[in-house]
């Protein structure tokens, strides 16, 4: 191969005479015969050259952009490298000076405590670090309002219980933040918005006490929420209430249930209008003989029966719910009904003695005067419409129904049976007393027979 290389040296490029590829090809040529060199090698070289040319053309077509970019970068590389070296040297020379300036700035301003620019910078940096926490705090009022709204929409369901509990937890969290940061304007604004939401929740809960068919569990739950939402209501007059400890919540509960009772009785307005017509016809009569011309009070009888039925059911439910919710262990005198039996005001009801230096008497419990209002509501209605009913059996039926109503409320300490003797007007007071006496006699006789029958039943 050395002899072949010496023969071909004048025809080769001096820079590629010792190329590895050249050496491999010359080694291959030395192994070929003369006939192969003359016949097969030239076409093989031509084919290889053509293949290589096609490959180069395809590569140029695919990667011409990269070739152009590489050529441009390569052309500027000889100037970019020296420039980068100079700039790196300048940066290295400037670092000590920059360090000296930073140390001088820190030394100069670290001793100044009233610099406004530094204070603003510190506040901005602190705000940037706590932006997520502030965002969470700012969202608390909206979350609380949404919880209260959702609970009002789903009132009376299990969802409202969970939502009200969540709202109370959010409010408690806001109160803790207000305790931890009492001077923060942001926390103060958040707490103010939360209080507005809790006022709406209080209104919704009080409205919930006026719902129809209020159950004991729902009443206890609602009063418990009110005690957490508005603790001030639980503290008002708590020292004046005798053994109840319900504060103003007891009065609120009774007022709400009374409003529901009144709205339920107002549903009888169509019957009441018919009874009013009979009242007008009765009052327009010249004498008693004229009163026989009108119907005799059938519409009034229907109205009063339905009225007494609703009154009996609702009054018993109101007082029973009150006693169970507030756990009021009151004696009959504290209940304020003992005076009703004799027709007197409940001034003799026992109450907590007021201090000697207090010129005003403390208010009695809410339940002490509430039955009086209920009884007044019933007696006013009976006094207005009972004279319309002229049929004796109908009147006795109504009085018996009232007697059962009085006995029903009397199971809770509110028997008002003796007041019924005063239902009539001045002209028929004696007749009413006689009718009431007859009804009481029949009722006692029936009760005695029932007691005898009950006593004969053997107890296993």
UniProtKB/TrEMBL annotation:
Superkingdom, natural source: Eukaryota
Compositional bias ranges of the Low complexity kind: 344-358
Entry GO CC: Golgi membrane; Golgi transport complex
PANTHER family recorded: CONSERVED OLIGOMERIC GOLGI COMPLEX COMPONENT 8, CONSERVED OLIGOMERIC GOLGI COMPLEX SUBUNIT 8
Pfam families: Dor1
Keyword Protein transport: yes
UniProt keyword annotation of Transport present: yes
Region (Disordered): 337-363
Main location: Golgi
Entry protein name: Conserved oligomeric Golgi complex subunit 8
Keywords: Golgi apparatus, Membrane, Protein transport, Transport
Biological process, per Gene Ontology: intra-Golgi vesicle-mediated transport; protein transport
Membrane topology: Peripheral membrane protein
Localization per record: Golgi apparatus membrane
Family, as annotated: Belongs to the COG8 family.
Species annotation: Penicillium rubens (strain ATCC 28089 / DSM 1075 / NRRL 1951 / Wisconsin 54-1255) (Penicillium chrysogenum)
């Amino acid at each position: 191969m050395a002899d072949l290389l010496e023969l071909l040296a004048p025809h080769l490029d001096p820079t590629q005479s010792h190329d590895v590829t050249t050496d491999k090809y010359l080694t291959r040529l030395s192994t070929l015969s003369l006939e192969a060199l003359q016949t097969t090698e030239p076409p093989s070289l031509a084919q290889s050259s053509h293949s290589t040319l096609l490959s180069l053309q395809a590569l140029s077509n695919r990667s011409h952009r990269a070739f152009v970019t590489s050529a441009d970068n390569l052309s500027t590389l000889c100037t970019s490298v020296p420039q980068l070296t100079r700039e790196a040297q300048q940066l290295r020379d400037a670092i000590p000076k920059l360090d000296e300036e930073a140390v001088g700035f820190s030394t100069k301003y670290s001793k100044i405590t009233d610099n406004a620019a530094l204070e603003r910078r510190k506040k901005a940096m602190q705000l940037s670090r706590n932006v997520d926490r502030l965002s969470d705090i700012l969202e608390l009022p909206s979350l609380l309002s949404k919880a209260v709204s959702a609970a009002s929409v789903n009132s009376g369901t299990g969802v409202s219980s969970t939502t009200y509990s969540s709202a109370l937890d959010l409010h408690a969290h806001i109160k803790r933040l207000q305790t931890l940061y009492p001077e923060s304007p942001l926390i103060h604004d958040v707490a103010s918005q939360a209080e507005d939401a809790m006022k709406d929740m209080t209104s919704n809960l009080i409205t919930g006490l006026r719902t129809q068919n209020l159950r004991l569990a729902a009443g206890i739950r609602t009063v418990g929420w009110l005690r957490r939402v508005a603790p001030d209501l639980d503290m008002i007059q708590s020292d004046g209430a005798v053994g109840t400890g319900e504060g103003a919540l007891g009065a609120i509960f009774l007022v709400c249930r009374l409003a529901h009772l009144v709205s339920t009785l107002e549903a009888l307005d169509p019957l009441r209008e018919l009874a009013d017509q009979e009242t007008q016809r009765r009052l327009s009569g010249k004498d008693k003989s004229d009163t026989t011309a009108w119907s005799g009070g059938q519409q009034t009888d229907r109205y009063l029966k339905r009225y007494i039925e609703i009154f009996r059911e609702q009054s018993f439910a109101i007082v029973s719910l009150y006693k169970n919710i507030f756990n009021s262990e009151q004696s009959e005198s504290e209940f304020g009904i003992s005076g009703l039996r004799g027709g007197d005001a409940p001034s003799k009801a026992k109450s907590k003695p007021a201090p000697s230096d207090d010129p005003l008497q403390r208010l009695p419990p809410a339940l002490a005067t509430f039955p009086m209002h209920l009884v007044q509501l019933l007696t006013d209605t009976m006094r207005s419409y009972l004279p319309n009913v002229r049929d004796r059996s109908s009147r006795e039926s109504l009085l018996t129904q009232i007697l059962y109503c009085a006995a029903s409320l009397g199971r809770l300490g509110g028997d008002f049976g003796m007041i019924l003797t005063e239902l009539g007007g001045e002209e028929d007071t004696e007749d009413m007393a006689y009718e009431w006496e007859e009804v009481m006699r029949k009722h006692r006789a029936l009760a005695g027979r029932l007691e005898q029958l009950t006593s004969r039943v053997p107890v296993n």
